[in-house]
Each structure stands twice: as C-alpha cells, then as structure tokens.
Write a structure and sequence with these properties.
This protein is an alpha/beta fold. Helices cover about 35% and strands about 15% of the residues. The protein is built from six helices and five strands. Helix 4 runs parallel beside helix 5. The structure holds 1,3,4-trihydroxy-5-OXO-cyclohexanecarboxylic acid.
Length: about 170
C-alpha cells in the first residue's frame, strides 16, 4: 500500500503538521493518474505521481506547508476523501480530477463545501484536445485553473498557495 493511502501514516502526518504549525495542502488525483509515467507518456510525461507529489512536498517546505497526496480510481472514494477534508482546515486543495473532471457533479458538490482555495490542475491542455475534455465541472468553483504545463502545473499551484499564506 502506498504510504499516501496508509491511515497510520496520514494520521501521523496530521499530528506532525499541527505540532509544527504547518499549513496543509491536499493534492487529489482522480482515475488513471496512478499510471503516470507509463500512461500515454507523449501526453502526460514520464514522471510518476509519487515523483510529482515528492517534488510538491519539497517546494512546499519553503513556505512551511506540508503536502498530502491522495489518488483513487473510484468516484465515491474521491467524494469521501473530500468530505473528510471538510472542517480539517486545509490551506488549499489541488485537484486533478482526471476523466471525472468532465463528468462528476458529485466531486464538484463535495469541493463546493470546502472554504479553502481549490486549484484545478491538468497535465495536458484539455482545451486543445477532444471536445469532451473542454468542459470541466470543477473550473467554476476553482480559485485557479492550470492546464498544459505538465507536472509543473502542480508545482506552480504549490507556489501560488504558498504566497497566499498571509493574504485572505
Ligand atoms: C487530465 C485530462 C483528462 O481529460 C484526462 O481524462 C486525464 C488527465 C490531465 O491531467 O491532463 O485523466 O486530467
């Protein structure tokens, strides 16, 4: 089991963040993003999701923020994870909903309950691809949308949230 899914690791991580006064960022990834590095590398690149999350964690440290990664292929599990984030005082949520971006009212409704900024990220430029990828249920409730910058989209979301820290 990836450490990002291990409940003991997640709980230890939360306690550590609180005791260090660190702000927490949750990065949620939807279906098939567990296959990054192997999946259509010409479109999505050669980095694995673990490598991307590790880079985000490294960048977040300079802002005294901690990053938690979550990935699931099942829509309901993603909704449940977002529901768990409700009331947990995340400084921000970064989400790449994968294909659910274009279909899921349930994920949008769950995100709409959160009060922290939501940054939507896509590795590819969804607007330059098939028409069914042009619409996102998430964009209208996101603070910002980053598309087409590959893994740097996630990193730039971390820097954006970092510089937001002392601002409303
Ligand atoms: C994606 C774009 C989606 O259309 C696709 O279904 C994905 C990945 C991206 O990061 O570019 O799974 O979200």
């Amino acid at each position: 089991m990836s450490k990002y899914k291990n409940p003991f690791f997640i709980e230890k991580w939360r306690i550590l963040c609180y005791s260090n006064g660190m702000k927490k960022i949750l990065i949620i990834n939807g279906p098939n993003l567990n296959m990054l590095g192997k999946r259509q590398v010409d479109i999505y690149g050669r980095e694995t999701l673990d490598e991307i999350i590790t880079q985000c964690q490294t960048q977040a440290k300079q802002y005294n923020m901690a990053v938690e990664g979550f990935q699931d292929n099942v829509e309901g599990n993603i909704v449940t994870r977002i529901n768990q984030a409700f009331g947990q005082q995340y400084h921000g949520v970064v989400i790449n909903g994968g294909a659910y971006t274009h279909t899921s009212v349930a994920i949008r409704d769950a995100l709409a309950m959160l009060t922290c900024p939501i940054i939507e990220v896509h590795l590819s430029n969804i607007h330059a691809r098939e028409e069914f990828r042009h619409f996102s249920y998430i964009s209208a409730i996101a603070r910002a949308v980053v598309v087409g910058m590959g893994s740097f989209g996630y990193i730039s979301a971390i820097h954006y949230l970092g510089q937001l820290q002392d601002k409303p």
